[in-house]
Design goal:
The chain is α+β, with helices and mostly antiparallel strands. It has one domain: Aminopeptidase (3-Layer(aba) Sandwich). Helices cover 29% and strands 32% of the residues. The protein contains five helices and nine strands; from the N terminus they run βααβββαβαββββα. Strands 1, 2, 3, 4, 5, 6, 7, 8 and 9 form a nine-stranded mixed sheet that branches.
Length: 194
Amino acid sequence: MNRKIRIRAEKHDDYKNIHTVVEEAFGKEGQNVAELVTLIRNSNNYIPELSFVAEVKGKIVGHIMLSHLNLQDENGLHQVVTLSPLAVAPKMQKKGVGSALIEVAIKKADEFLEPMIVLEGSPAFYSRFGFKPAVSIGVTIDLPHWAPEEAAMVYPLSAYKAEIKGKVAYPPAFDKVNEASHARSERIDRNVSS
C-alpha cells in the first residue's frame, strides 16, 4: 500500500465529504450512487466497521463500503457481504487508492468472520485481489444483459464453508439505483485500478 494513503473506518463527520467523492467518481450516475451509500447506511445491512475512507494529506479521496446481503438457496438464506460501491476521487484514480481500500476491506471482513465478499465488477481488476467467478462456488448474481458472466465475482474468506451458496438477493437499498450502479461499474473499475 502507498504509505501516503491512510485507510480508516468512516465516521459521521465524513458523510458530506464521502458524498462528494462518490458523486464525482461516478460522473452522471454519481447522485444515484451517493444515494445508495446513504440508503445502505440507513438500513439494517450497514456495517460501520466495514465502511472505509482513504485519506491523502488529511483529505478524503476514496470510499469503500461492505454491507450485508443474503444468498438464497433451497436450504434458506446465507448472510454474506457485498462490496459496493467503491469510489475514488477523479484526480486520485490510478494511484493505488482503490487497491488500498480493497485490501483493507478484505482483511477486515476476514477479521469479522464474514464468509465471503460478493460483487459485480471487472474481472481484470478484481481478480488481482483474489476475487474469482461467483459460479465457481455456486453463487449466482443477476447481471445486466451487457455484462459478462465473469463480472459476478466472489472472494471466499476464512469463515467460508462450501454450503454457503445460492442466488444473491440484493437488499431494498439497491433497488432504486440498481441500473445506475450496473451502468458505471466497468468504467469505474478501469479508473480506480492502479
